[in-house]
Amino acid sequence: MVRIHKLTFGYSRQVPLFENLGLTLERGHIYGLLGKNGAGKSTLLKNMTGLVFPQAGSCLINGQPAAQRLPSVLEDLYFLPEELYVPALTARQFVANTAGFYPRFSHQQLADYLGEFEVPDHAVLDKLSFGQQKKFMIAFGLATNTSLVVMDEPTNGLDIPSKVQFRKIMASALTEERCLIISTHQVRDLDSLIDTVVVLHNREIVLNEALDQLAERLTFTTLREGQEGEVLYAEESVRGRQAIVPNPDGRPSRVDMELLFNAIAGGGQSVINYLKQPVYEQSI
User: Fold this and answer.
1) What predicted TM-score, i.e. pTM, was given to this entire model?
2) Which residues of 125-157 are buried (b: 16+ CB within 10 A; e: fewer)?
């Protein structure tokens, strides 16, 4: 679906943001793109959607260069940027003017999504609150039924009940033919939603792993006093000392994405180095 090969990009040629970056994203998955503020998440998404152009390397969508923005690619791609602009139109008028660009647009799905989000379709979009605008654009994007849906910080501006609705709606929208990519620095917003985590750190993709595979290789636990054994990462919390430790027995456990992200973004290499080892070496 998405193939990024040796991508080099920077807003200044003297200071590249990415160098030789590689990433492959497939249909049938919900990817969570994580990274610290300023890591380049939004820029990477703009490369995917053809809004900025690589200095070297390539970014292909279904085999076509994203930078060419071919109609056949754009009609099968929906991008929700972090900063929204909505026109002074009602939701119905916006749909009437825009839905025709997407051959598989479903008016019934849009009505269902707006109902779940409690967004009226008769309201003028630029008079809605930012959170309501965000929910309308999320609903519209999913109703396009494009194969590729890219969302940059979609939960910014949403209250807690709306975030719960967002996770429910996104999960229901996934099919084997769709690839959903969600960028965020609010890691907990992606709990129980994504199936694959991608971490952008220090100008490179340091992790692109399915959560079930992470759960088989790592254990996320609270350390007991005097507990021995290898600890890959640990931090203090109100629940005690939270840690990531090897999981040589392969017993699945729940992945604590916030703890995982802190371990990587904090500069520690122990978790990444451990995951790079072949499985058979970890069991020796």
Assistant:
1) 0.91
2) beebeebbbbbbbbbbbbbbbbbbbbbbbbbbb
